[in-house]
Amino acid sequence: MVQQKIVIKVQIRCDKCRSRAMEIAAAADGVISVALEGENKDTVAVTGDEVDSVDLAIRLSKKLGHTSLESVEQVDQQPKMKAKIQKQVRVRV
What is the pTM for the complete model shown? Predict the structure, then answer.
């Protein structure tokens, strides 16, 4: 499976809107982690497997107002796996 990181800029007016954005993003299928980024905490960063970025942006816009899909990029898992394998090899020797 391919993990991807989706960054969506959301119109956030208050703390309740922030928590609502987190709830909506976490409820999407395939989401592993959700974080708020940016200076004003108005950017939602979602990491997950096969997450539908357009559907997520539409859901956020329906509940919170204007949203903007900033980026969708793949997350490499290879370096993490190599580090785990090296640790296991060191323990066995």
Answer: 0.77
